[in-house]
Amino acid sequence: MRHLLVCATVLVALWSCHPEPDDYDLLDQMVVSTNYDTTVYIGGNSVSSYKTYALPKDTIGYVSNTDRNDTIRTSPQYDLPRKVLQAVETNMINLGYIPAGLGEIPDIGVNVYAVKDLNLFQQVIYPNYYYSGYYGYGGYYYYPYVQTYAYNTGSLVVEFVDLKNAAANKKYVVIWNAYMGDLFNAVNQLDQSIEAVNQAFEQSPYLKVQ
Amino acid sequence: MKKYLMFTIALLGAQVLYAQNNYFYIALDVNTPLGNKDFVNETSAKGGRLGYRAFVTEDSRVSIGIDASWTTFDKYKPTETFESHGGAITTDYFNYVYQYSLAVSGLYHFKLGESERIFPYAGVGLGANHNEYVQYYNIYSSAEKKWGFLVRPEAGILFRFTRNRGLGAMAAVHYDYSTNKSENFNIDKFSSVGFQIGLIVMNRY
Protein backbone atom coordinates (compact mmCIF):
# COMPACT_ATOMS: atom_id res chain seq x y z
CA MET A 1 0.00 0.00 0.00
CA ARG A 2 2.72 2.41 1.00
CA HIS A 3 4.78 1.32 -2.00
CA LEU A 4 1.90 2.44 -4.18
CA LEU A 5 1.97 5.85 -2.53
CA VAL A 6 5.73 6.14 -3.03
CA CYS A 7 5.37 5.21 -6.70
CA ALA A 8 2.57 7.73 -7.12
CA THR A 9 4.75 10.41 -5.47
CA VAL A 10 7.65 9.75 -7.80
CA LEU A 11 5.40 9.70 -10.86
CA VAL A 12 3.69 12.97 -10.01
CA ALA A 13 7.02 14.61 -9.20
CA LEU A 14 8.61 13.46 -12.45
CA TRP A 15 5.56 14.53 -14.42
CA SER A 16 5.67 18.13 -13.46
CA CYS A 17 8.77 19.37 -11.69
CA HIS A 18 10.47 21.84 -14.02
CA PRO A 19 9.22 21.42 -17.60
CA GLU A 20 10.64 23.69 -20.29
CA PRO A 21 9.51 24.48 -23.84
CA ASP A 22 10.36 22.02 -26.56
CA ASP A 23 13.72 22.75 -28.24
CA TYR A 24 12.27 22.63 -31.72
CA ASP A 25 9.62 25.23 -30.86
CA LEU A 26 12.26 27.49 -29.33
CA LEU A 27 14.82 27.26 -32.09
CA ASP A 28 12.67 27.37 -35.23
CA GLN A 29 12.90 31.16 -35.38
CA MET A 30 15.79 33.51 -34.62
CA VAL A 31 15.61 36.45 -32.27
CA VAL A 32 16.19 39.63 -34.31
CA SER A 33 17.52 42.66 -32.48
CA THR A 34 18.21 45.92 -34.32
CA ASN A 35 19.81 49.08 -32.96
CA TYR A 36 20.40 52.46 -34.53
CA ASP A 37 22.48 55.48 -33.73
CA THR A 38 20.01 57.93 -32.22
CA THR A 39 22.12 60.89 -33.31
CA VAL A 40 21.88 59.81 -36.94
CA TYR A 41 18.33 58.55 -37.21
CA ILE A 42 16.00 61.11 -35.67
CA GLY A 43 12.23 61.00 -35.97
CA GLY A 44 12.30 58.12 -38.42
CA ASN A 45 14.73 59.86 -40.81
CA SER A 46 18.48 60.02 -41.13
CA VAL A 47 20.13 63.40 -40.70
CA SER A 48 22.68 62.47 -43.29
CA SER A 49 21.35 61.28 -46.63
CA TYR A 50 23.01 57.95 -47.36
CA LYS A 51 22.54 56.58 -50.83
CA THR A 52 25.33 54.27 -51.93
CA TYR A 53 26.69 51.14 -50.31
CA ALA A 54 29.39 48.52 -50.64
CA LEU A 55 28.76 44.87 -49.80
CA PRO A 56 30.82 41.72 -50.42
CA LYS A 57 29.31 39.15 -52.78
CA ASP A 58 30.39 35.85 -51.33
CA THR A 59 32.27 36.36 -48.09
CA ILE A 60 31.19 37.07 -44.56
CA GLY A 61 33.35 37.59 -41.51
CA TYR A 62 33.67 34.81 -39.00
CA VAL A 63 34.69 35.54 -35.44
CA SER A 64 35.30 32.52 -33.27
CA ASN A 65 36.82 32.02 -29.84
CA THR A 66 38.31 28.67 -30.82
CA ASP A 67 39.55 28.42 -34.39
CA ARG A 68 42.27 30.96 -35.12
CA ASN A 69 42.66 30.03 -38.76
CA ASP A 70 39.05 30.31 -39.75
CA THR A 71 38.37 34.03 -39.81
CA ILE A 72 36.15 34.28 -42.89
CA ARG A 73 33.49 32.09 -44.41
CA THR A 74 33.26 32.05 -48.14
CA SER A 75 31.07 30.40 -50.73
CA PRO A 76 31.09 27.83 -52.24
CA GLN A 77 32.34 25.92 -49.17
CA TYR A 78 29.35 27.24 -47.31
CA ASP A 79 25.92 28.11 -48.73
CA LEU A 80 25.20 30.62 -46.03
CA PRO A 81 27.37 33.64 -47.02
CA ARG A 82 26.16 34.13 -50.57
CA LYS A 83 22.48 33.61 -49.72
CA VAL A 84 22.62 35.92 -46.71
CA LEU A 85 24.47 38.60 -48.67
CA GLN A 86 21.90 38.33 -51.46
CA ALA A 87 19.12 38.85 -48.88
CA VAL A 88 20.92 41.92 -47.50
CA GLU A 89 21.41 43.33 -50.99
CA THR A 90 17.77 42.78 -51.99
CA ASN A 91 16.63 44.66 -48.90
CA MET A 92 19.11 47.49 -49.54
CA ILE A 93 17.84 47.93 -53.09
CA ASN A 94 14.20 47.81 -51.93
CA LEU A 95 14.98 50.64 -49.52
CA GLY A 96 16.35 52.75 -52.37
CA TYR A 97 20.12 52.29 -51.95
CA ILE A 98 22.35 51.81 -54.97
CA PRO A 99 25.68 49.94 -55.09
CA ALA A 100 28.70 52.23 -55.18
CA GLY A 101 30.45 52.38 -58.52
CA LEU A 102 34.01 51.23 -59.11
CA GLY A 103 36.46 53.62 -57.46
CA GLU A 104 33.64 55.49 -55.73
CA ILE A 105 33.61 55.83 -51.96
CA PRO A 106 30.30 54.42 -50.72
CA ASP A 107 28.18 56.24 -48.16
CA ILE A 108 27.70 53.01 -46.20
CA GLY A 109 29.96 50.01 -45.78
CA VAL A 110 27.93 46.92 -44.94
CA ASN A 111 29.65 44.42 -42.68
CA VAL A 112 28.18 40.96 -42.38
CA TYR A 113 29.75 38.43 -40.05
CA ALA A 114 29.03 35.48 -37.83
CA VAL A 115 30.17 35.29 -34.23
CA LYS A 116 30.71 31.82 -32.86
CA ASP A 117 31.14 31.34 -29.16
CA LEU A 118 32.17 27.93 -27.92
CA ASN A 119 30.90 27.45 -24.38
CA LEU A 120 32.60 24.90 -22.23
CA PHE A 121 31.70 23.77 -18.79
CA GLN A 122 33.04 20.99 -16.67
CA GLN A 123 31.67 18.80 -13.95
CA VAL A 124 33.60 16.64 -11.53
CA ILE A 125 32.00 13.20 -11.19
CA TYR A 126 32.56 11.22 -8.02
CA PRO A 127 31.73 7.57 -8.73
CA ASN A 128 30.27 5.37 -5.99
CA TYR A 129 32.70 4.98 -3.18
CA TYR A 130 32.86 1.70 -1.31
CA TYR A 131 35.09 1.13 1.68
CA SER A 132 35.05 -1.96 3.87
CA GLY A 133 36.23 -0.05 6.90
CA TYR A 134 39.56 -1.56 7.84
CA TYR A 135 42.57 0.49 6.83
CA GLY A 136 41.73 0.38 3.19
CA TYR A 137 41.76 -3.39 2.78
CA GLY A 138 38.92 -4.80 0.77
CA GLY A 139 37.71 -1.39 -0.28
CA TYR A 140 37.20 0.03 -3.73
CA TYR A 141 37.83 3.59 -4.58
CA TYR A 142 37.12 5.10 -7.97
CA TYR A 143 38.96 8.28 -8.74
CA PRO A 144 36.78 11.26 -9.62
CA TYR A 145 36.83 12.23 -13.26
CA VAL A 146 35.96 15.39 -15.11
CA GLN A 147 33.22 15.45 -17.68
CA THR A 148 33.35 18.27 -20.23
CA TYR A 149 30.34 19.59 -22.04
CA ALA A 150 30.52 21.90 -25.00
CA TYR A 151 28.00 23.79 -27.04
CA ASN A 152 28.19 26.51 -29.65
CA THR A 153 26.22 29.68 -29.60
CA GLY A 154 26.48 32.64 -31.86
CA SER A 155 24.92 35.43 -33.82
CA LEU A 156 24.72 36.61 -37.37
CA VAL A 157 25.52 40.32 -37.46
CA VAL A 158 24.83 42.97 -40.12
CA GLU A 159 26.31 46.44 -39.61
CA PHE A 160 26.10 49.74 -41.44
CA VAL A 161 29.33 51.71 -41.14
CA ASP A 162 29.19 55.42 -41.93
CA LEU A 163 31.86 55.98 -44.58
CA LYS A 164 30.33 59.20 -45.86
CA ASN A 165 31.22 61.11 -42.69
CA ALA A 166 34.27 59.05 -41.70
CA ALA A 167 36.75 61.82 -42.47
CA ALA A 168 34.72 64.44 -40.61
CA ASN A 169 34.13 62.08 -37.67
CA LYS A 170 37.74 60.90 -37.77
CA LYS A 171 36.44 57.43 -37.05
CA TYR A 172 34.25 54.74 -38.53
CA VAL A 173 30.90 54.84 -36.78
CA VAL A 174 28.41 51.97 -36.83
CA ILE A 175 25.08 53.68 -37.40
CA TRP A 176 22.87 50.59 -37.53
CA ASN A 177 23.28 46.95 -36.62
CA ALA A 178 21.25 43.79 -36.48
CA TYR A 179 22.02 40.83 -34.23
CA MET A 180 20.27 37.59 -35.14
CA GLY A 181 20.52 34.48 -33.03
CA ASP A 182 21.01 31.85 -32.30
CA LEU A 183 22.80 30.99 -35.51
CA PHE A 184 24.38 27.72 -34.48
CA ASN A 185 21.36 26.09 -32.85
CA ALA A 186 18.93 26.98 -35.64
CA VAL A 187 16.71 24.18 -36.89
CA ASN A 188 17.32 25.33 -40.48
CA GLN A 189 20.30 27.68 -40.43
CA LEU A 190 20.07 28.96 -43.99
CA ASP A 191 16.32 29.63 -44.20
CA GLN A 192 16.12 31.08 -40.71
CA SER A 193 19.10 33.37 -41.42
CA ILE A 194 17.43 34.77 -44.53
CA GLU A 195 14.12 35.23 -42.69
CA ALA A 196 15.99 37.00 -39.90
CA VAL A 197 17.77 39.36 -42.30
CA ASN A 198 14.43 40.25 -43.93
CA GLN A 199 12.90 40.85 -40.50
CA ALA A 200 15.82 43.08 -39.47
CA PHE A 201 15.16 45.41 -42.38
CA GLU A 202 11.39 45.24 -41.95
CA GLN A 203 11.61 46.45 -38.36
CA SER A 204 13.94 49.30 -39.40
CA PRO A 205 11.83 51.44 -41.79
CA TYR A 206 13.93 54.55 -40.95
CA LEU A 207 16.70 53.11 -43.13
CA LYS A 208 14.75 54.04 -46.27
CA VAL A 209 16.60 56.43 -48.57
CA GLN A 210 15.05 59.90 -48.52
CA MET B 1 -0.13 37.42 24.52
CA LYS B 2 2.75 36.37 22.32
CA LYS B 3 3.76 33.75 24.91
CA TYR B 4 0.26 32.24 24.94
CA LEU B 5 0.22 32.15 21.17
CA MET B 6 3.60 30.40 21.01
CA PHE B 7 2.49 27.97 23.72
CA THR B 8 -0.71 27.17 21.82
CA ILE B 9 1.20 26.60 18.58
CA ALA B 10 3.72 24.36 20.36
CA LEU B 11 0.93 22.40 22.01
CA LEU B 12 -0.90 21.89 18.76
CA GLY B 13 2.36 20.90 17.06
CA ALA B 14 3.09 18.28 19.70
CA GLN B 15 -0.47 17.05 19.51
CA VAL B 16 -0.19 16.66 15.75
CA LEU B 17 3.14 14.84 15.96
CA TYR B 18 1.79 12.28 18.38
CA ALA B 19 -1.63 12.02 16.83
CA GLN B 20 -2.96 8.52 16.31
CA ASN B 21 -5.35 9.55 13.60
CA ASN B 22 -3.77 11.03 10.53
CA TYR B 23 -3.34 10.66 6.79
CA PHE B 24 -0.81 11.22 4.06
CA TYR B 25 -1.80 12.11 0.55
CA ILE B 26 -0.34 12.59 -2.90
CA ALA B 27 -2.36 14.22 -5.64
CA LEU B 28 -2.28 15.46 -9.16
CA ASP B 29 -3.11 19.16 -9.12
CA VAL B 30 -4.77 20.86 -12.09
CA ASN B 31 -4.75 24.66 -11.90
CA THR B 32 -6.04 27.65 -13.84
CA PRO B 33 -4.58 31.11 -13.27
CA LEU B 34 -7.22 33.71 -12.47
CA GLY B 35 -5.31 36.95 -12.91
CA ASN B 36 -2.35 38.14 -15.00
CA LYS B 37 -3.73 36.22 -17.96
CA ASP B 38 -1.60 38.14 -20.36
CA PHE B 39 1.43 36.38 -18.92
CA VAL B 40 0.03 32.86 -18.42
CA ASN B 41 -3.52 31.82 -19.08
CA GLU B 42 -3.69 28.11 -19.77
CA THR B 43 -5.01 25.46 -17.41
CA SER B 44 -2.10 23.36 -16.31
CA ALA B 45 -2.07 19.71 -15.30
CA LYS B 46 1.66 19.96 -14.63
CA GLY B 47 1.25 20.11 -10.90
CA GLY B 48 1.14 17.99 -7.81
CA ARG B 49 0.69 18.15 -4.12
CA LEU B 50 1.61 16.01 -1.15
CA GLY B 51 0.92 16.45 2.49
CA TYR B 52 0.36 15.14 5.97
CA ARG B 53 -2.63 15.93 8.13
CA ALA B 54 -3.31 14.83 11.68
CA PHE B 55 -6.53 15.00 13.70
CA VAL B 56 -6.10 17.13 16.79
CA THR B 57 -7.51 14.49 19.10
CA GLU B 58 -8.58 10.92 18.48
CA ASP B 59 -12.25 11.77 18.05
CA SER B 60 -11.74 15.20 16.69
CA ARG B 61 -12.98 16.20 13.28
CA VAL B 62 -10.40 18.97 13.07
CA SER B 63 -7.05 18.29 11.45
CA ILE B 64 -3.87 20.30 11.21
CA GLY B 65 -1.41 19.54 8.47
CA ILE B 66 1.26 20.62 6.11
CA ASP B 67 0.96 20.72 2.33
CA ALA B 68 3.72 21.04 -0.28
CA SER B 69 2.68 21.71 -3.84
CA TRP B 70 4.13 22.59 -7.20
CA THR B 71 2.63 23.78 -10.46
CA THR B 72 3.92 24.99 -13.79
CA PHE B 73 1.91 27.49 -15.81
CA ASP B 74 2.85 28.41 -19.35
CA LYS B 75 1.77 30.37 -22.38
CA TYR B 76 3.11 30.63 -25.92
CA LYS B 77 3.32 34.14 -27.34
CA PRO B 78 3.52 34.35 -31.14
CA THR B 79 6.10 36.51 -32.89
CA GLU B 80 5.99 40.10 -31.77
CA THR B 81 8.14 43.19 -32.33
CA PHE B 82 9.03 45.28 -29.29
CA GLU B 83 10.09 48.82 -30.05
CA SER B 84 12.40 50.71 -27.74
CA HIS B 85 14.39 53.91 -27.90
CA GLY B 86 17.19 53.15 -30.33
CA GLY B 87 15.99 49.83 -31.64
CA ALA B 88 13.60 46.92 -31.77
CA ILE B 89 13.56 43.22 -31.05
CA THR B 90 11.43 40.57 -32.74
CA THR B 91 10.85 37.10 -31.38
CA ASP B 92 8.27 34.55 -30.39
CA TYR B 93 8.53 33.43 -26.78
CA PHE B 94 7.20 31.27 -23.98
CA ASN B 95 6.12 32.55 -20.59
CA TYR B 96 6.48 30.13 -17.70
CA VAL B 97 5.66 30.36 -14.01
CA TYR B 98 7.13 27.65 -11.79
CA GLN B 99 5.26 27.76 -8.52
CA TYR B 100 6.24 25.96 -5.32
CA SER B 101 4.33 26.41 -2.11
CA LEU B 102 4.30 25.27 1.48
CA ALA B 103 1.24 25.78 3.67
CA VAL B 104 -0.04 24.85 7.09
CA SER B 105 -3.68 23.83 6.87
CA GLY B 106 -6.53 23.65 9.36
CA LEU B 107 -9.47 21.56 8.15
CA TYR B 108 -12.82 20.44 9.50
CA HIS B 109 -13.96 16.96 8.46
CA PHE B 110 -17.71 16.60 8.40
CA LYS B 111 -19.45 13.50 9.61
CA LEU B 112 -21.11 11.51 6.89
CA GLY B 113 -22.84 8.41 8.21
CA GLU B 114 -21.38 6.03 10.76
CA SER B 115 -19.01 4.16 8.46
CA GLU B 116 -15.98 6.48 8.90
CA ARG B 117 -15.15 5.89 5.27
CA ILE B 118 -16.17 9.14 3.64
CA PHE B 119 -14.95 12.47 4.96
CA PRO B 120 -16.05 15.68 3.27
CA TYR B 121 -13.87 18.50 4.52
CA ALA B 122 -13.33 22.25 4.28
CA GLY B 123 -10.74 24.59 5.64
CA VAL B 124 -7.95 26.94 4.93
CA GLY B 125 -4.21 26.81 4.44
CA LEU B 126 -1.73 29.58 5.16
CA GLY B 127 1.85 29.66 4.00
CA ALA B 128 4.30 30.94 1.45
CA ASN B 129 4.85 30.36 -2.21
CA HIS B 130 7.87 30.80 -4.41
CA ASN B 131 7.28 31.78 -8.02
CA GLU B 132 9.91 31.67 -10.70
CA TYR B 133 8.80 33.79 -13.67
CA VAL B 134 10.68 32.88 -16.84
CA GLN B 135 10.55 34.04 -20.44
CA TYR B 136 12.17 31.65 -22.92
CA TYR B 137 13.08 32.90 -26.39
CA ASN B 138 15.37 30.87 -28.64
CA ILE B 139 18.40 29.92 -26.52
CA TYR B 140 17.92 32.94 -24.26
CA SER B 141 15.82 33.45 -21.16
CA SER B 142 14.95 36.11 -18.60
CA ALA B 143 13.85 35.19 -15.12
CA GLU B 144 12.77 36.62 -11.81
CA LYS B 145 12.23 34.72 -8.54
CA LYS B 146 9.86 35.97 -5.87
CA TRP B 147 8.30 34.88 -2.58
CA GLY B 148 4.75 35.67 -1.53
CA PHE B 149 2.26 35.03 1.26
CA LEU B 150 -0.33 32.37 0.43
CA VAL B 151 -3.94 31.90 1.55
CA ARG B 152 -5.68 28.78 0.33
CA PRO B 153 -9.35 28.03 1.12
CA GLU B 154 -10.03 24.42 0.24
CA ALA B 155 -12.90 21.92 0.19
CA GLY B 156 -12.75 18.26 -0.69
CA ILE B 157 -13.64 14.72 0.10
CA LEU B 158 -11.65 11.75 1.36
CA PHE B 159 -12.81 8.23 0.66
CA ARG B 160 -11.37 5.10 2.23
CA PHE B 161 -11.75 2.06 0.02
CA THR B 162 -12.71 -0.17 2.98
CA ARG B 163 -13.45 0.51 6.65
CA ASN B 164 -10.41 -1.34 7.91
CA ARG B 165 -7.85 -0.36 5.36
CA GLY B 166 -6.01 2.92 5.17
CA LEU B 167 -5.79 3.30 1.42
CA GLY B 168 -8.24 5.62 -0.21
CA ALA B 169 -8.78 8.41 -2.68
CA MET B 170 -9.28 12.12 -2.43
CA ALA B 171 -10.61 14.96 -4.54
CA ALA B 172 -10.56 18.65 -3.69
CA VAL B 173 -10.97 22.13 -5.07
CA HIS B 174 -8.91 25.04 -3.84
CA TYR B 175 -8.42 28.71 -4.45
CA ASP B 176 -4.90 30.08 -4.05
CA TYR B 177 -4.47 33.74 -3.34
CA SER B 178 -0.90 34.93 -3.18
CA THR B 179 0.79 38.28 -2.72
CA ASN B 180 3.51 37.08 -5.09
CA LYS B 181 4.41 39.66 -7.72
CA SER B 182 7.02 40.35 -10.34
CA GLU B 183 8.17 43.86 -11.15
CA ASN B 184 10.06 42.77 -14.28
CA PHE B 185 7.06 41.06 -15.84
CA ASN B 186 4.44 43.39 -14.41
CA ILE B 187 2.60 40.74 -12.40
CA ASP B 188 0.70 41.53 -9.25
CA LYS B 189 -1.00 39.14 -6.79
CA PHE B 190 -0.83 35.76 -8.43
CA SER B 191 -4.04 33.79 -7.87
CA SER B 192 -5.35 30.53 -9.26
CA VAL B 193 -8.04 27.94 -8.78
CA GLY B 194 -7.26 24.24 -8.75
CA PHE B 195 -8.70 20.78 -8.69
CA GLN B 196 -6.81 17.86 -7.26
CA ILE B 197 -7.30 14.14 -7.30
CA GLY B 198 -5.09 11.65 -5.52
CA LEU B 199 -4.44 8.83 -3.13
CA ILE B 200 -4.49 8.80 0.65
CA VAL B 201 -3.17 6.51 3.33
CA MET B 202 -5.21 7.07 6.47
CA ASN B 203 -4.83 5.91 10.02
CA ARG B 204 -8.16 6.46 11.77
CA TYR B 205 -9.74 3.99 14.11
How would you sum up this structure, described in words?
The complex is a heterodimer of chains A (210) and B (205). Helix content of chain A is 25%, strand content 33%. Chain A has a single domain (22-207), classed as 2-Layer Sandwich (Double Stranded RNA Binding Domain). In chain A, strands 1, 4, 5, 6, 7, 8, 9 and 10 form an eight-stranded mixed β-sheet that branches. Chain A is an alpha/beta fold. In chain A, 23% of the residues are buried. With 205 residues, chain B is mainly β. Chain B has a single domain (20-203), classed as Porin. Helices cover 8% and strands 65% of the residues of chain B. Chain B has one helix and eight strands, in the order H-E-E-E-E-E-E-E-E. Chain B has an eight-stranded antiparallel β-barrel with strand order 1-2-3-4-5-6-7-8. The longest helix of chain B is centred in the N-terminal third of the chain and has 16 residues, at 2-17. Chain B is elongated. Chain B starts with a helix and ends with a strand. In chain B, 37% of the residues are buried. Classes of the chains: A alpha/beta (210), B mainly beta (205). Chains A and B meet through helix 1, helix 2 and strand 1 of A and strand 1, strand 2, strand 3, strand 4 and strand 8 of B.
Give me the secondary-structure topology.
The complex is a heterodimer of chains A (210) and B (205).
Chain A: H1 2-16, H2 23-27, E1 31-36, E2 41-42, E3 45-46, E4 52-54, E5 59-64, E6 72-74, H3 80-94, E7 98-99, E8 108-125, E9 145-162, H4 166-169, E10 173-181, H5 189-202
Parallel strand pairs in A: 4-7, 4-8, 5-8
Antiparallel strand pairs in A: 1-10, 2-3, 5-6, 8-9, 9-10
Chain B: H1 2-17, E1 22-33, E2 47-55, E3 62-84, E4 87-109, E5 118-137, E6 140-160, E7 167-178, E8 191-203
Quaternary structure annotation: heterodimer
Instruction: Tell me the count of domains of chain A.
Output: 1
Instruction: Please report the distance between the alpha carbons of the first and last residues of chain A.
Output: 79 Å
* CATH architecture annotation name of chain B: Beta Barrel
Query: In angstroms, what is the radius of gyration of chain B?
Result: 21 Å
CATH level-3 fold name of chain A = Double Stranded RNA Binding Domain
Please identify the top-level CATH class of chain A. Answer: Alpha Beta
